[in-house]
Structure formats: C-alpha cells, structure tokens
Amino acid sequence: MKLKIAICEDEYNTQFLLEDFVQEILNGYNIEYETEVYSNGEEFCSGFQKNDFDLIFLDIALKEMNGIEVSKFIRETKGDEGIQIAYVSGNTSYALDLFEFRPINFLIKPVGLDDIKKVIDKLLLLTNQYEELFRYKKGTSSYLVPLRDILYFSSKGRKVTIHKMDGEDEFYGTMDHVYSQVEKKRFLFVHKSYIINCLYIKLLEYSQITLTGNIKIPISQARRQAIRKEFLSFKKEGL
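RE: above sequence
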C-alpha cells in the first residue's frame, strides 16, 4: 500500500523541514509513499477529493482559508473521515477548538523529527501496516524494520542481533519477546538463539537450515519435527 501525505503550510522553511522529515522516516521504513506540498488552504481544497490522502500536516494559521476552515471542508463538505489530520501550530490555544475534527496529533512549532515520527508510527498502526514491521527500542529511541528485510534474529546473553538485508543492529531483549511480534508471520523459532525468516530459506535439512547467502542455522533437536510441520504449513499458504 502506498501512503499519500499532504503538507499544507505557508512557511517555506517549515514546508521543507516537514517534507524532509517524512522522507527520512518513510525511506528508513522502506515504505512506498508520495508527498504533495501546498502553500495555502485554497490550493489544497481546490483539487481535493475524498480518499485522496492518508495524512495531512495542516498549519492552523494559514492566511485567507485557515486550518480550521480546511478541516471543516475535509470532514463536513467532503465527508472524509479517513484522512488523518496532524495540526501544526506555534499557538497551543487552538487545541480544544480542533477536537471535533478528530486530529491524529497536534504539533507545536518548531517541529522535530521525533514529533513527525510519532505521527507516522501512529498512521502505520491505524492503516495496519504495523503488522508488517518489527519494532525494537535502543535507549529511548524506537526503530521499525520491514519484516521482509529481516533474514534472521540471533541472541547472546541479553543481546539480540537483528540480521537485515543491509546490515546488522543490536538491542537488549529476549527471543520470546521478539517471537511474540513475528509469530505466524512466516518466521520460525528454530533454536533458543535463532529465529529465521522463511522467505530466505534455501535448504531445510533435519538438523539445520541454510538461508540466502549460505548462512547455516542449527535447528534444536526438540524443535525439528515442529519446524518442518510449520514450514510446510507456510508453503501451503503460498510462501
């Protein structure tokens, strides 16, 4: 699913900043998207049709047609309840007035990367794209990785390594917690220290699995029969 995001903002510096942040986040998530930038409310509304966009970053203090009027146009004139509205303003006094338009968030200028990331993450959750992403934390920062980009997970002590198509990363956690996110999504818990992505299995043998890149992963003795049964089940579903 391609995300369509609108930015309606009359300050050029904020326009560029918002677009750069959106691109940085979604490129990192490897999610297909497109953005459209508008400098005023009239320009946005003139061509707007219901279901055009998944999300709009909307400046409240637009000249001529302000953000509240744009919101009324979206929700009442066009009857679009699907588009998520993230308000952007330097003034917090608007917050209660905007409640009736059911915003996804209210961002205070100057807007930072983490502010935009929270909005994007919530949008992905609401559009069910979170189901195809693996989430982990390092310190106070959260990261999202598309499941299709993960080869396998390995663990040593309290550290889990996520082996991706483009490199590796480490975080503190348990394999049980990792598996709770990827279970039934074509991942196999083949060993207490390994969880593998079925998409990249080249060869399934009795005691080991060979992944793309000739990576050999052991299968624990206690799990061998169950792993073969799960893999065959995935194959029947069209893996």
